[in-house]
Amino acid sequence: MSHSRWKSLRERRLAEGLTEPEDVAEARREIRLSMALAKAVYDRRTELGLTQTELADRAGLTQAKISRIEGSDTVPTLPLLSKLAKALDATLNIALDDDDTRVIFTAHDHAA
């Protein structure tokens, strides 16, 4: 089944009043957060022109760990997020809401 067909089927079921089991909804929220972080790390890393290996060196991590973060395959700890923000020369902002998850790296302004 294609993604668009699955999505329309899901939306139709929700419109009919059918709801997802809570564990499925929770898993969907967790995946959404993980994917938002993965995209934010990737976007900031490429904005800086860094490879995964270069970012890993800056953060004191391995390239494999950066790959797992960018692939949404891991849930990083707060200390790891702090290392990433420092290595990406940015402030990490995470906004969590039921249906709106935003993860943003804001570049530090070094102009004096």
UniProtKB/TrEMBL annotation:
Keyword flag DNA-binding: yes
GO molecular function, one term: DNA binding
Superkingdom of the organism of origin: Bacteria
Gene Ontology CC, one term: cytosol
InterPro entries, per database record: Cro/C1-type_HTH, Lambda_DNA-bd_dom_sf, TransReg_Diox_bact_type
Record has DNA-binding as a keyword: yes
Keywords: DNA-binding
Coiled coil: none
Boundaries of every HTH cro/C1-type domain copy: 41-95
Name of this chain's protein: DNA-binding protein
Species of the source: Streptomyces toyocaensis
Taxonomic placement: Bacteria, Bacillati, Actinomycetota, Actinomycetes, Kitasatosporales
